[in-house]
Specification:
Blueprint (H helix, E strand, L loop, with lengths): L10 E3 L8 H10 L2 E5 L6 H15 L10 E6 L7 H11 L3 E5 L4 H9 L3 E6 L2 H10 L3 E5 L5 E2 L5 H9 L5 E5 L5 H9 L4 E4 L13 H9 L5 E4 L7 E4 H6 L45 H28 L1
Parallel strand pairs: 1-2, 1-9, 2-3, 3-4, 4-5, 5-6, 6-8, 8-9
Antiparallel strand pairs: 7-11, 10-11
Length: 318
């Protein structure tokens, strides 16, 4: 079976705050999936351009012969004062795919479409999915329950089914998917790709702190807490990281005002030592290279496909 964009597997290594950088993006795309990183992992638009340039030189920009697919993630919330200058860097380095999050995709559409790139919008509700579809995006990233970071609340089966009723574009489903069996399940439910963040957090190319990587390896879904106290938007947090920061998981502060300004220094940002993960962390048993993770995902995917084929054959004979 062949996948769109010439991929080995229909997987995006989801952009993760303080985790995804050029090394992870390049390794993911070279391994046969789509690598991505968020603009708020650097302090300035100039640094953002440097990262985009490093990736583009390694993988190619949109329209270049032999370019590998990769994605840039942009926060389009109204509080992100850096968006106009970040868009200038997008226009310069032309990532093949741009994923918007925490705001409308409309501010990036003209810039990305001008060079022929694809725009996908990160959405957590049906209301947001409809608005993004109306804006004319090429794809919707349906962030479902079980996702790390800013998580959704809908089951992936319900979300994908509902979106398919009004959207004919590409659907990328994320939330607790961490193995090849989950990839097969998402595609069987109607998705075109899956979004995996946590599965790539504990890799050697990840920018995550070693303590964060080790905590993901050591913890299970029982060690997660969903709260809006950290960023103002519900997100999934590792309880041990809350405790090590001196916080009582049972009595977290009231939700803070939502501010997603990429220009704020990540060294002075509150909560930078509170670590996130999704419900798929139980599939992670070591800190390994991205290429090794992708190889294991492919083995699991093929096993899942073989199981489907066996079930279909049995049904045909019944």
């Amino acid at each position: 079976m062949s996948f769109p964009l010439g991929l080995r597997l229909p997987v995006f290594a989801a952009p993760m705050f303080l985790v995804s950088g050029p090394e992870l993006v390049i390794a993911a795309s070279r391994a046969g999936i789509v690598g991505a990183f968020p603009n708020n992992n650097v302090r300035t638009s100039e640094e953002y351009g440097e990262w985009l340039g490093r990736i583009a030189e390694a993988l190619g920009s949109h329209g270049q012969p032999g370019a590998l697919p990769w994605a840039a993630n942009l926060i389009t919330h109204s509080t992100n004062t850096r968006l106009p200058t970040d868009l200038e860097q997008i226009a310069r380095w032309r990532p093949p795919i741009v994923i918007t999050s925490l705001g409308s995709p409309r501010p990036v559409m003209q810039t990305v479409r001008a060079y022929g790139g694809l725009v996908c919008a990160d959405v957590t509700t049906l209301r947001l999915a409809r608005k993004a579809a109306e804006a004319g995006v090429d794809g919707l990233v349906c962030v479902c329950s079980g996702a790390g970071g800013h998580t959704g609340q809908l089951s992936p089966f319900a979300f994908i089914s509902a979106v398919r009723r009004f959207f004919t574009g590409t659907i990328i489903a994320g939330g607790g998917i961490a193995d090849g069996w989950g990839i097969a399940g998402a595609l069987a439910a109607g998705a075109d790709f899956v979004y995996m963040g946590t599965r790539f957090l504990a890799t050697t190319e990840s920018l995550a702190a070693e303590g964060h990587k080790r905590m993901v390896v050591d913890c299970s879904a029982d060690d997660l807490l969903i709260s809006d106290a950290v960023t103002g938007t519900p997100a999934s947090w590792l309880v041990p990281s809350l405790v090590q920061c001196g916080l009582d998981p049972a009595q977290l502060p009231d939700a803070r005002q939502r501010v997603y300004d990429s220009g704020r220094s990540k060294e002075t940002r509150r909560w930078k030592d509170v670590w996130s993960a999704g419900q798929g962390l139980g599939a992670i048993d070591g800190i390994v290279p991205v290429a090794q993770v992708v190889a294991r995902l492919e083995e699991e995917w093929r096993a899942a496909c073989a199981r489907f084929a066996g079930l279909a054959a049995s049904a045909a004979q019944a």
